[in-house]
């Protein structure tokens, strides 16, 4: 049986299908999933155009009820759907369940936003004229999402888009169709009208240009690589569509001499190797001051040795496999480059665990410089590098010396140092005595420079992208 695309209220198979394979066990095929072609992508856009005005005309409370039902089902089924997510993507069962729970929280939060869409009532500079400033839906939104958070990221794009009266065409990453299909299924059964949400699974090469370049698309929200994000931006802006991009990161975590080492090592392990390091907020650059450097490396190496790599759904596993063979090969190439540049590579070997899977030991790169390739480019795997610096001044300079600017962190017991870092960091999100990864669903998410483009995602700030401001002048009748 082929799991179909959802277009205009109909489940439709595509011209071909792709097997969805468990990265923990390459012999385990989760299912066959349809792949849309350009014709189906165009049909999905047409369906969204036809449905959008009717959806926007519904009272916000009606949209809220549908989203609230969907969010409630996600929360009720987080164990079941989290297990399926971990089987498909490779993050641990704990992480998979937590992601589905977060998706449910996001959807329920934006259910509330559907009835929390305030405007302004202002007096004019002219007598007998009143001004109403209101927010209206943008129209049709293309949502293009990555494989590393196959439920949470789609939820934090789709939910606010729907809450504010937009219609959506959703293309998930090719590697994670099952999680996307389940999310859409929940939303559809919650009561969405036909055409308001459309699912087109398949290759970005085949349908990406349609979803970004079609003049009927009013906005595009994309999360993925920096190079692809630039192409998305060019395509969408060629016909005046709004663009929101979340791309790469090369996030620094500063460790000062006065840091609580127990907390610091735990935070570095979570930030660097949680979710197999496959997240844009990972702590990939560990910037450590000189006096504490050797002890920190010794302790982090010992903690790295305690990480249990294995089947994502096994209860003892603390780090799952890499998502697929291509990503595994990329991780290995970066380890070779780091060694050639003079880094000491601790770990990073391929693991044979008896069952065929994409297993890689977490890697720590010691003795790197900030100008090394591994500290300039995003690896997107369980690889963290250590950079030795003299003091806080040099640490902040190194932390900010990157083309990215998503998140940055510091471990210190000095309020003065923490405050200075928070003020001088050029990242969009700053963590003090916390891992760089791990964000809340009700506050803005996003970075600067090469990490992000356009309005922030999540929280109340999501409204800025998914609505357009209208200023109305009314003269006395």
Structural class determined from secondary elements: alpha/beta
Largest sheet: 7 strands, mixed
Instruction: Estimate nothing, just give the exact number of structural domains.
Output: 2
- Beta-strand content bin: 15-25%
> What's the CATH superfamily of the largest domain, by name?
Aldehyde Dehydrogenase, Chain A, domain 1
**Shape descriptor:** globular
**CATH topology value of the largest domain:** Aldehyde Dehydrogenase, Chain A, domain 1
β-strand number: 21
Average pLDDT value? 97
| Reported CATH architecture of the largest domain | 3-Layer(aba) Sandwich
State the helical fraction.
25-40%
Strand order of the largest sheet: 15-16-17-14-13-18-19
- Runs in which pLDDT lies below 50 for 5 or more consecutive residues are none
Distance, first to last CA: 63 Å
CATH class of the largest domain: Alpha Beta
Computed over alpha carbons, the radius of gyration is: 23 Å
Question: What does the secondary structure layout of this molecule look like, with pairings?
Answer:
Elements: E1 2-3, E2 5-7, E3 10-12, E4 16-22, E5 25-35, H1 38-57, H2 60-76, H3 78-89, H4 93-113, E6 120-123, E7 129-137, E8 140-144, H5 152-163, E9 167-171, H6 177-189, E10 197-199, H7 204-213, E11 219-223, H8 226-237, E12 242-246, E13 251-255, H9 261-273, E14 283-289, H10 290-305, H11 325-340, E15 344-347, E16 363-368, H12 373-376, E17 383-389, H13 392-400, E18 407-411, H14 415-424, E19 429-432, E20 452-453, H15 462-466, E21 467-475
Parallel strand pairs: 1-5, 8-9, 8-11, 9-10, 11-12, 13-14, 13-18, 14-17, 16-17, 18-19
Antiparallel strand pairs: 2-3, 4-5, 6-7, 7-21, 12-20, 15-16
Helix pairs in contact: 1-7, 2-4, 2-6, 3-4, 4-5, 7-8, 9-10
